[in-house]
Each structure stands twice: as C-alpha cells, then as structure tokens.
C-alpha cells in the first residue's frame, strides 16, 4: 500500500503582492487603472445583457491624511455569491476569459485575475459591496493581504453594481490626494465612453467631459484641426505640429498620430498612448507602429490587441503585426494625400524632420516612394524639392561628395547644368535609389572632369600663340602629376578648374598618407603608387576667358609665369578642398614670398 499523500500548494499572498508591486506594476498608481478597468468590464458585461444600458463610475474621497478612504462605484453587472467564491477569492481566476485565456479574444480588458491585488499597494484591506444584475442577495467581501477574507450577505438590498472601499495605508497618502486622483482618472479614463465622476472636498466633477466624438471616428478629425491639436496637447503634454488620422480596415484600431514639433533622433524610443477598449493601458507602447514612424506620437485605441499582464505592452503576434502594418499604411497614405491637396503643409512636416525622413527613406523604399517629391536638395538651381527639380525637365546630375560639388558648382551653374549636391549625409544613397525607382528619370553621377567636356577649345591661332606657355606650365606642374589644358569656359571670373579622376584621387590620398607614415609603411605605399597607370593624372584647366589668365599667358617673364601657374594650381586645390601635400604647401609659400617681393620691387 502506498503511503503517498497529496497536498495543496500554499500561496503566501503578501509575498505575491510584493512581487507584483515590485516587478509587474510600474507604480502604485496603477491601482486606479485596475479599478477603472474592472468597472469598465462590469459595465461592458451589463451592456451585453441590456444593450440600451448606460454605465457610470463614481469615485469618492473622504476624510484626510491616514484616515482617508476611497470608494469606486460602478453600475455594472455585479457579482453573485457564487461569483465571489469563484473569482474574487481565487487568485489568477478571472470571470472574463476561459482557460485558454492568452489566445482567446474577449470584450473585456481583464484576463489574468490578479488586477484587484494591486489595491493592496495602497490599502491594507479591500472591501467589495456588490449586487448582481442576476438577482440574489447583496454581498460583502473583505480581503486582507495576509490571504484571509470574509464574505457575508447584507441585510439591505443595493442597486446592481459594485462598490470598492479602500482605506489609506501608512505612507500612501499621496495616492489619495484629490488632485492626484483626478489626474490619474483623466490619464487612464479620458476616452471612456461613459461618465467618470469624482467627488472630493464637497465638489463633484466629471473627469472625461472633454472626450471628443472624432476620436473613435478619426476621419472626422480632419476638419477640426484646432480642437484636435488642443486635445493632443492636453493628453500628450506638449504642443504638436500637425496630425494624421489613423484607422485599420476592420475599424477595430484607430486614433491620431501627432507630428512632433521638433526633430528627433532616430534612436529615440518611440512611445505611444494606447487605449484598450477605451481605457489607457500603456503610454510607452513601442511596438504598435513601424520603426520608421519616429516623428509621431500617437493616441491609439484598439479592441483587438491583447495586453500582457503588466498592461504596458502587447503580445507580439500576427494581429499586432498586421495592425502595425496598417497603421503605417495610414500614415503613408495621409502624407500622400496632404502632398496632393496641401503641398505646403507636407513640405513643412518634411522639413521639420528632414534628416530623419531622409534616413528612413534611404532604408525604406516604400517610404521613399511616398515622400521623394518633398525631399530638398542643394542644387545649382538653389535649394529645391526633388519634385520642383523634376518639373524643370532637365537632365539631373549629382556629385558624390561635397567637395566635388563645391569644385564644379560655379562652372556647372554657368553652363545651366542641373547638379545636385549628393555629398551631404544620405543624399547620394537617396539619389541612387531614386534612379532605380524611377527608371524613366534622366539622372547621372557627375565627375568634375565631365564638366570640362563642354569647354570651348582654342582656335588654331590661339593654340599656336600659347603653345610655349602651355608646355612651360605643364613642366612646372609635372611633379604634381597634373597636366595643363587651356580652354575657354564660363564663368569668366573663375581662372582655373582642377579636376581629378577617381584613380588620381586615390593616388593623391596615397601620397598624403606616405607623408604621414613611418619609413616602412611609406615604402609599401610607394610600391603601391607605382601600380597606378600614367592616366592617374589630374588636370588643371586654365580659363582664357578670365582677364587674369589672359594677362599671365601674355606675360613675357618666364619665371613669373611659372610661379603664377603654380600659384593658380595650389589655389584651385584650396578651392576644391583637397588636402595639400607638403610639396604643394612649399610651392604655395615660396610663390607668395616671390610675388610680395615682385610687388614691392615694382613699387620701389
Ligand atoms: N467592479 C467589478 N464588478 C464586477 N466584478 C468585478 C469587479 N471588480 C472585480 N470583479 C471580479 O473580480 C475578478 C478579479 O478581478 P481582477 O481585477 O483581480 O482580475 P481580472 O480583471 O479578471 O483580470 P486582470 O488581472 O487581467 O485585471 C474579476 O474577474 C471579476 O469577476
């Protein structure tokens, strides 16, 4: 015979409350959230039995200091004696869902059967007076944090509903302060569809009177801009720039995405206020919108997502994924709509969040497709949106670096070429993506040497006239691997243009690196340099339209001519923001001294 015996687990309730308050709930404030949620669920349950039923909740605070008490009363479905034994007295058992609660969807917010325990964070006793709509006697349940409770039938019959009594426990006075309670009730219950009243200090007020009708039908918000922005400021605590109505196709999730009034770092945590069955469950929900929607802060309501036990997040499941996708789509569609009907408004939004929008568009093709017309670029036609640039119907060129852009901007502008500065962060990635996205677009990367293709050649006569001068300048710059071309080009104010092929650009960097490295490394770099072909030459175009260049090329003084050519070379390097080698700096220094000397001697 076996002497095996079966025992029941004993639960140390005060230990459990400790765990809940320290690890599950972010602050004792949540006791009001749990009470309001229970009242909401009870009202929903009664509404299911009687569709015309109108619910209400009244919170009353009496007494002061450690003698303060609070009651939270609803006219919801109430509890029978049997319900009390089953749900109030059994932790982890809820009237609102079946055994497979995680998976099952219900009309209620509560599902874990532990919420009421949060009241022990602020009270040493919870008293529940209740009358079920199903009839039976009115009941009283008194629970203590040590795990004991009493139940008794009341002699008087209450009207259907439930009233919860709490008595302030030592050090919990702030949680009973009328001001604090009012703020918390508004915080959690601003969107509740039935009146939530507070009575304290002889004053009664309805907390959620300002609840707007457009919140559940966000498309109505479009015509109520001022009201929507004012409501957003009240709930989110800062003035917002603009807003976008949100709604999923099944109508079970919606809200308003407010556009932040300042640009934000891409890595900032995006947190939104989410209302489940119109009760705030989280103001830190991060996973409800796509990653890229960092420029908005939302008020979102839903009746289809499932909160975790802490209520502060939602289960990451297929439903959440499709809600996230659809809300993202709402934002994209609205941005496109604004772009079509109110382009200046979209321009303002995009400019406010320009860098972040570009970063996002560089990673997300759909988003790029939505907003590319409104992205601004520096161009030889000024600071313009891509849409404006397209409207010009010109071939679009872009550079890869800011230096390349600076180097050729004057020349390209003088020749009416449309060149975009691709050098700033994200710009050339975006332009390269756009050329794939819009294959019909005539767009090409521009190298500084390409602009020289449109330069005007010298006449035969001029070529003969300046033959010796060109040879002399070529010789003077040979040690810098730079060849000379004498051309005519606009603008006439520009004396010389320095261009560098990709290969010679690498060679320049190599030579600069050689100067700064140890002997061994320098010899390795030196060997590398010899592998570059002869084409690794840069070109300095002198502009014969420029009066100074004309003077220099017509000067009979060889020494002065050579020095002037070298000075124009170093000047062109400076203008193009190229790092100069020690040799080039030396030439610049010596040239300056020579010119000062010549200047002074000619005045003497
Ligand atoms: N105001 C109320 N009216 C009617 N029944 C209530 C009320 N408050 C609590 N109850 C009953 O007490 C049970 C336990 O409530 P509790 O808040 O602990 O858990 P829950 O709401 O079911 O789930 P959760 O832990 O997710 O909030 C509920 O399931 C419900 O049956």
Q: Short summary of the structure?
A:
The protein has 604 residues and is an alpha+beta fold. It has four domains: 194 residues, Histidine kinase-like ATPase, C-terminal domain (Heat Shock Protein 90, 2-Layer Sandwich), CATH 3.30.565; 111 residues, Ribosomal Protein S5, domain 2; 78 residues, Rossmann fold (3-Layer(aba) Sandwich); 110 residues, Four Helix Bundle (Hemerythrin (Met), subunit A).
Characterise this structure.
Belongs to the heat shock protein 90 family. InterPro entries: HATPase_C_sf, Hsp90_fam, Hsp90_N, Ribosomal_Su5_D2-typ_SF. This is Molecular chaperone HtpG. By secondary structure, this protein is of the alpha+beta class. The protein folds into four domains: 194 residues, Histidine kinase-like ATPase, C-terminal domain (Heat Shock Protein 90); 111 residues, Ribosomal Protein S5, domain 2 (2-Layer Sandwich), CATH 3.30.230.80; 78 residues, Rossmann fold, CATH 3.40.50; 110 residues, Four Helix Bundle (Hemerythrin (Met), subunit A) (Up-down Bundle). The strands form five sheets. It has an eight-stranded mixed β-sheet with strand order 5-4-3-6-2-1-7-8, with helices on one face. A five-stranded mixed β-sheet has the order 9-10-13-11-12, with helices on both faces. Strand 1 and strand 2 form a beta hairpin. The chain is elongated, with a radius of gyration of 38 Å. About 2% of the residues have low confidence.
